[in-house]
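Propose amino acids for all 468 sites.
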C-alpha cells in the first residue's frame, strides 16, 4: 500500500489512525487514508488563518500560483487518474480527463478578472464597490467527482484571496490527498490544507469557529445539516445538492437521432452525476421507439473494472449506493415496471450493476420521484405536454433539465418553463467553467463557476470617498 498524507501548513502530516478505502471494483480495502483528529483539524484551520494576510495581499502571486497548479494537473493527470480510478471506480480514461478538467478550471480562474466597480464619480463623491475575500473557507466534496468538484471550490476561493481547508468524501479521499501533496510545490504553506476522515470530521469543520464560509457538494440531507451547523455563527454557505433531472422529448423528436445523447447524459460516470438525466418523458407515439433505442445502448455497454482498457462504465462507487440502486429498481419492477434492459446486479465481486432501462413506469414510483444516482433510467410516457412539464417540475429538486426537439426554438420555449438552474436544449450535461451552475429549491443555495461562482467567495465592500 502507498503512503498518503494530509497537507497541513504546507507539511506532510500523518494521522493517529487510518481508515480503509475500498476499491469498488473488488469490494475490498485497497489503501489506508489518514483519519484526521480534532486537534489536527484545529492545526489546519489555524494554518489557513495564519496564511491569509500574505495570500490576500498579492493578486499577481495568486494568479501565478493557480497557473502553476493547473500545469501540475496536466503533467500528473494519468498518475492521479490511476488513484482516482482505484477509489472511485470510473474508467481510467475518464479519471484522467477529470484531472485534466481540474487543470482547465484552474486556468480559467487564474485569468478571470475581478473588476472594481465605480458606481459614482462626481463633484460630491467617488464611490467604488470592491470584492474582498471572506477569510478561511471550509470545503467538503463528494465521491462522484472528488477532484474536479474540489477544484470548482478551491480555484475561485483562492483567486479571491481566501485560504482553504478541504475535506474529501471518506469513500474517495486518496485523489484529493494527492492533490494536496502536489500543490505543496506551488502554494504557500497554509493556503490549501487537505484533511481526510469520516462524517465526524465534516461536522467539526462546519461548526468550527475559524471558517467564514462552508462550500459543500453532496446530498440534500447532509446539505441541510451543513446549513443548520453554519447558522449559529452566520457562516456563508454554498450548497450544491442533489438533482432529479428530467429530459422531455417533444413530439417531433427523432428517437434515433437523440438516443445516443440521451443515454450518454443519463449514464455518464455510471449515472453518478448530480445533473445527469434521471428520468425521461416521452410522447406516447414515440415511446416504444425511444425505449428500444435506449435499451439497445444499455445492452451493448461494456461494464467492468475501470483499469481495464475498453471499459465504458465502472462499478457503483460504494455499497450503500449500490444497495440503494438495487432497491429502487426492485421496487419499480415489483410495481409493474418492465426492465427493457438490465435490472439486476452483475454476479461477481465489486459493486457492478447492469445498465438498466425501465419502461412502463410512471410518476409515483420511487425511482421516478427520487434521485437514483446510479445506472438505472426510468422512461415515462405522456399524452399532454403541459402535463409533462408539470410532472417534471413537481419535485423538491431543481438542478437541471433538458428539452429535445427538431425545432430548437420551440424546445427553448419549453425549457424556459422548467424550474431548474440549468435548462438545456438538445443537449444535457454541457458544463463549462464560465457557466454558472446551481439549483432551485432543494437542489442548492448559490452557484459555482464563472464570475458568479467567484463572487460567492467574496464580500462586497463600498469605498466611499467624499469630495466635499
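Proposal:
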Amino acid at each position: 500500500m502507498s503512503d498518503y498524507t494530509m497537507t497541513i501548513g504546507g507539511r506532510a502530516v500523518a494521522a493517529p489512525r487510518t481508515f480503509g478505502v475500498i476499491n469498488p471494483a473488488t469490494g475490498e480495502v485497497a489503501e489506508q487514508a489518514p483519519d484526521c483528529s480534532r486537534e489536527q483539524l484545529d492545526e489546519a484551520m489555524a494554518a489557513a488563518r495564519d496564511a491569509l494576510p500574505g495570500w490576500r495581499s498579492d493578486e499577481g502571486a495568486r494568479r501565478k500560483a493557480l497557473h502553476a497548479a493547473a500545469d501540475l494537473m496536466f503533467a500528473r493527470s494519468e498518475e492521479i487518474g490511476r488513484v482516482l480510478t482505484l477509489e472511485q471506480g470510473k474508467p481510467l480514461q475518464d479519471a484522467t480527463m477529470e484531472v485534466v478538467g481540474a487543470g482547465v478550471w484552474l486556468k480559467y480562474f487564474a485569468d478571470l478578472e475581478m473588476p472594481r466597480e465605480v458606481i459614482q464619480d462626481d463633484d460630491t463623491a467617488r464611490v467604488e464597490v470592491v470584492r474582498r475575500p471572506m477569510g478561511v473557507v471550509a470545503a467538503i466534496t463528494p465521491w462522484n467527482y472528488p477532484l474536479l468538484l474540489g477544484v470548482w471550490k478551491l480555484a475561485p476561493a483562492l483567486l479571491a484571496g481566501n485560504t482553504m481547508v478541504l475535506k474529501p468524501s471518506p469513500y474517495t479521499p486518496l485523489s484529493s490527498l494527492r492533490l494536496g501533496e502536489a500543490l505543496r510545490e506551488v502554494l504557500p504553506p497554509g493556503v490549501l490544507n487537505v484533511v481526510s476522515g469520516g462524517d465526524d470530521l465534516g461536522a467539526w469543520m462546519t461548526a468550527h469557529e475559524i471558517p467564514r464560509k462552508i462550500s459543500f457538494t453532496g446530498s440534500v440531507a447532509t446539505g441541510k445539516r451543513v446549513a443548520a451547523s453554519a447558522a449559529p455563527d452566520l457562516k456563508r454557505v454554498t450548497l450544491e445538492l442533489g438533482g432529479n433531472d428530467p429530459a422531455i422529448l417533444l413530439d417531433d423528436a427523432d428517437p434515433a437521432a437523440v438516443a445516443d445523447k440521451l443515454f450518454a447524459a443519463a449514464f455518464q460516470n455510471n449515472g453518478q452525476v448530480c445533473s445527469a438525466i434521471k428520468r425521461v418523458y416521452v410522447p406516447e407515439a414515440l415511446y416504444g421507439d425511444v425505449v428500444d433505442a435506449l435499451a439497445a445502448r444499455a445492452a451493448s455497454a461494456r461494464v467492468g473494472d475501470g483499469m481495464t482498457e475498453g471499459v465504458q462504465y465502472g462499478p457503483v462507487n460504494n455499497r450503500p449506493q449500490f444497495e440503494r440502486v438495487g432497491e429502487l429498481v426492485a421496487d419499480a419492477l415489483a410495481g409493474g415496471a418492465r426492465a427493457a434492459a438490465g435490472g439486476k446486479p452483475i454476479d461477481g465481486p465489486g459493486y457492478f450493476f447492469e445498465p438498466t432501462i425501465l419502461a412502463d413506469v410512471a410518476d409515483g414510483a420511487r425511482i421516478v420521484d427520487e434521485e437514483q444516482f446510479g445506472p438505472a433510467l426510468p422512461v415515462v410516457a405522456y399524452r399532454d405536454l403541459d402535463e409533462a412539464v408539470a410532472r417534471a417540475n413537481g419535485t423538491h429538486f431543481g438542478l437541471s433539465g433538458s428539452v429535445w426537439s427538431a425545432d430548437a426554438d420551440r424546445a427553448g420555449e419549453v425549457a424556459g418553463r422548467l424550474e431548474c438552474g440549468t435548462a438545456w436544449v438538445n443537449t444535457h450535461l454541457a458544463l463549462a467553467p464560465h457557466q454558472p451552475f446551481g439549483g432551485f429549491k432543494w437542489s442548492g443555495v448559490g452557484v459555482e463557476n464563472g464570475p458568479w461562482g467567484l463572487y460567492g467567495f467574496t464580500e462586497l465592500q463600498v469605498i466611499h470617498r467624499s469630495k466635499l
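The chain has a mean pLDDT of 97. The chain is about 40% helix and 25% strand.
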